[in-house]
Design goal:
Helices cover about 20% and strands about 15% of the residues. The protein contains 4 helices and 8 strands, in the order ααββββββαββα. The strands form 3 sheets. Strands 1-2-3 form a 3-stranded antiparallel sheet, with no helix packed on it.
Amino acid sequence: MERAPDLDIEELKMTREQYILATQQNNLPRTENTQLYPVGIYGWRKRCLYFFVLLLLVTMIVNLAMTIWILKVMNFTVDSPLVLQSDRNVTVNARNHMGQLTGQLTVGADAVEAQCKRFEVSSSEDGRVLFSADEEEIVIGADRLKVTGTEGAVFEHSVETPHIRADPSQDLKLESPTRSLIMEAPKGIQVSAAAGDLKATCRKELHLQSTEGEIFLNADSIRLGNLPVGTFSSSSPPSSSAARQTIYELCVCPNGKLYLSPAGAGSTCQSSSNICLWS
């Protein structure tokens, strides 16, 4: 066999250094061919992004303007009351847990209608019921019921009340234009005028009747106006004093009609008087 040639130590070192250098050069990146790309959004993507941002800003401004306009039109403010407006009716419904209608309030152009079992109006101070209505009765709890209409209050049936009084300096008038006016009470009826006159007028007849008691007229003077004057026939011829008669006697016919008769020494009332015969 042939012997390998002997290598010098210096040559081995150089060969090793060249190998390491060649290896490092192969591992290092080659920067001469590397391309640099910019970071960010450019081109049509950037324009689209700006467009969407601008559209979002315009939408927010329009939404804010519409909200302010709605609050202004509907009067939604902190200090003002809530106002519900409609071109037609405004209806508020109340329902139970089954969905059935239990109450309804309708505000229309011609009327305000409430449909419920009981309607109440209470005082804001003490909660006292001022007005209530149901199917059985209507209760007015106010201290005074005042009717300001020119025709007054009209009742088709009976009215029960403990007190009827007119306003100060105003006349109290109870009138029935076409029917009778009847006032009944088991313990009596009192009609008084403390500072004025009491007048009762009628078109035909006025009856004062007491079935078990008496009719008592208590006054300083009792005047009966427009009573007819009857005639008195006697055997004595009329004197000159009869023409100047100033004193009369109040007479009553069998049918109860009153008339005046010239007063004399005795009673001059005669049942055969012309007033009684033609009455």
